[in-house]
Amino acid sequence: MKSNLYVCPICGNILHATGSAMISCCGVTLPSLENEQVDDEHQISCEKIENEYFVSLHHPMTKNHYISFMAYCTGERFELVKLYPESSIEVRFFCRGHGLLYWYCNHHGLFMKKI
After folding, report:
1. N or C: which end of the chain has fewer CB within 10 A?
2. How crowded is residue 72: how many other Cβ atoms within 10 Å of its Cβ?
3. Segment 47-54 long-range contacts (CB within 8 Å, at least 24 positions apart)
């Protein structure tokens, strides 16, 4: 379940590695994202509805400040949903047991929750 996530500050490209790697994009070597402490602005709601997790978040989705992606990672699968400015933050993931839920704010960094 160890995942390393990278985001290019120039083009916004999202990269995932299952181990240590030297990743570069747009001529820049990217550091692996570190999880930030979840605060009030980045509290996520995750509820199980039948065979899916319904994930939502109340967060600005302007062109300058938004949630870029959400990802659900288990021991055998990694699923990523790209989000865009001015859209809602409502995502569904098929339940595959316990795992980690990641979401990335373009201003505040990567957040993580065990589900």
Report:
1. N
2. 23
3. 48/95, 51/94, 51/95, 52/92, 52/93, 52/94, 52/95, 53/92, 53/93, 53/94, 53/95, 53/101, 53/115, 54/90, 54/91, 54/92
What's the half-sphere exposure (Cβ side, CA atoms, 13 Å) at 81?
18
- pTM over the 0.90 mark: yes
Q: List pLDDT tens digits, range 61-97.
A: 999 999 999 999 998 899 999 999 999 999 999 998 8
Contact 13, 27 (CB under 8 A): no
* Residue where the block lists tokens 């985001």: 7
User: Domain 1-114 belongs to what architecture?
Assistant: Sandwich (2.60)
Record the tokens describing residue 9, joined without a space.
């500050």
Question: Which pair of structure tokens corresponds to residue 14?
Answer: 């999202």
Query: The tokens of 66 are what?
Result: 């938004």
C-alpha–C-alpha distance, residues 109 and 33, integer Å = 8
Rounded Cα distance, 85 and 64, in Å: 8
